[in-house]
Amino acid sequence: MGIVEEAHNLRVLGSGQQVIVLAHGFGTDQSVWKHLVPHLVDDYRVVMYDNMGAGTTNPEYFDFERYATLEGYAYDLLAILEELRIGSCIFVGHSVSGMVGAIAAITRPDLFTKLVMVGASPRYLNDVDYYGGFEQEDLEQLFDAIRSNYKAWCSGFAPMAVGGDLDSVAVQEFSRTLFNMRPDIALSVAQTIFQSDTRQILHLITVPCHILQSVKDLAVPVVVTEYLHQNLGGESIVEVMSSDGHLPQLSSPDIVIPVMLRHIRYDIAA
């Protein structure tokens, strides 16, 4: 097993001709795709991996400088595709991984036939003529809460992010993966994500994009999807789903999985 494979807990399932790469968001790991994968393995070769810093990865591999920007994660994705000798894939990116896939697709558009973004945002902070959902003060409070008592913060953040009650399986699942992260790494990753701004490069994305979004999402307001749609350089399509929360593939699989499958199989240009 190569270092890339080992570091990211790479898993390849199925044996189809077409490759699908599934990439998770903050506080989760590849287990967030458990409801989707069974529907893919008969028709596709499915690649899953854990972002560096996830609780399932070795914290010794986490380079705070490298992962201070989203480019660090994009380079990891390109290294994974190279390691597995993947010449073309459909990339499904949840949350921050939607933008990570976008950055990678600007660098190597030949490797991506389409991007499916789930709950992705180019910027979380509000700005002039832009509504991202957060003020700087909100973020400072978030970071302070992570610093002061990580376990307590996880307990409060998980149900808000998932949009379910404390007893729901999805909230428990997200709480588990969130709590598995080392607190200093979780803080660093949160700062990188919430302070990122990829608006200036959206016009460089020429790969077709499918933008999927919950109607109610603590992290990403619905208006962000329209901003993405209007500013991407290539063709794009938006679907706002009747799901609640930032991890709809985990909390509302009955609603979300059929939508995701339709967009994975549907070609905008057709």
Automatic annotation (TrEMBL):
Alphabetically sorted, this entry's keywords are: Hydrolase
Q: Which GO terms describe its biological process?
A: de-etiolation; response to karrikin
Q: Where is the AB hydrolase-1 domain?
A: 19-252
User: What GO annotations for molecular function exist for this entry?
Assistant: hydrolase activity; protein tag activity
Q: Which Pfam families match?
A: Abhydrolase_1
Q: Which InterPro entries match?
A: AB_hydrolase_1, AB_hydrolase_fold
Q: Which residues form the signal peptide?
A: none
PANTHER family reported in the protein's UniProt record:
ESTERASE-RELATED
Sequence similarity: Belongs to the AB hydrolase superfamily.
The name this protein goes by in its record:
AB hydrolase-1 domain-containing protein
